[in-house]
Amino acid sequence: MLAVLSWVFIWWLTEAIPMPITSMSPLFLFPLFGIASSEEVTRSYMNDVISLMLGSFILALAVEHYNIHRRLALNVTLLFCGDPLNPPLLLLGICATTGFISMWMQNTAAAVMMMPVATGILQWLPDGGDEVHPDVVRFRKAVILGVIYSAAIGGITTLTGTGVNLILVGMWGSSFPQEMPIGFSTWFLFAFPLALLIFFALWGLLCFCYLSKGSGSVLSAYLDKSSLKREKELLGPMDFAEKMILAVFSSLVVLWMTRSITDEVPGWGSLFHGKVGDGAVSVMMATLLFIIPNKKQEGEKLMDWNKCKKIPWSVILLLGAGFAIADGVRSSGLADILSTSLRFLKTAPPLVITPLVCFVSSSLTEFTSNNATATLVIPLLIQLAKSISIHPLVLMIPGAIGAELAFLLPTGTPSNIVGFTTGHIAIKDMIKIGLPLKVVSIGALSLLMPTLGKEAITLSADLE
Hints:
0% strand
């Protein structure tokens, strides 16, 4: 499994063959090397998360087809661009909007929702050719990286922001049912300041690495406020089709947010005994687009299959490969070998435990999905906490948050793939920003765990 993992990632990094073809290699490598059967590997390429992506892509294509993303992009740009144009302020507005949306829905859904808005802003800039100014190219990279990382950071702040937080809460409740559960407000009061520190570190890194002092004058030639206002007026009022697509998208967001909330407020998903996932909801709402008429031509619906030919199937394959690798790492026993590396925490000083746990968890999450990392690491940390006689949350919280810091590779989390497939960023760009951002995140968590983290932990009874 380790050899196959190395093989696949080398091909991904070097692009020796097209990335989608590399993504299909587990379909034959795993059976040939006895890691998993063909049936088991194939199932990894279509699960609830991939269904979520598929439905979201169809909705995003509808938003793009009716130029709704252009309207949203104009509103965001006019609100934050400044007069004269202030690129750092505009970048801050895009990142803050993404982060706020990600607080209330899954990271992937937030990235899928905001990426058309981001690319809508970028479409006013010249695309391709040797004559394109370097500041334009760098600004494109900053915007895309800002969206995908802001989606991840925003997800940290609330229990519903990412599945990892829900896994943490669920494992705490099931392992220690006699203790007070982690509430929405308790988590928010700890995680929001943490996310805020990481967010401003991200903004500072993007401005430092990609926005020069003269970028404002270069970009203002394409993002002039008066011309943007005129373009907004030319769009006119929203028609029926645009309103219906926004209604479907808004309904999907509400359904995502309310399907599973907390143990006290289980959400509407409990009505179906937990059998309905976010992917099922995503595909169901996307299906409505093929039923509702657009009232432009008789018999024509909001969407048809010809419009769906632009679905980025390469993303689906890449995501499927990530899940297949995660399953292979677990089923082959490699996960057990990797987990033994945490045993050194038994002899680590107390102040070093938080950064060490977060570092190990954030390293594993680059190679497996966030949820898979949390599912693997948190139970081990619970047992480790019992053996070294410290409060389990001292280990569980850094382990969970570390699983959300997948900043280095496209396969680390689906939201990274959403940005990677725009073609504006490469893996080296992700490493350039993601590596220092990961270091800052671990440092911020190490700073807050003995302070705000201690206050949150004392809400539960002492377990010693």
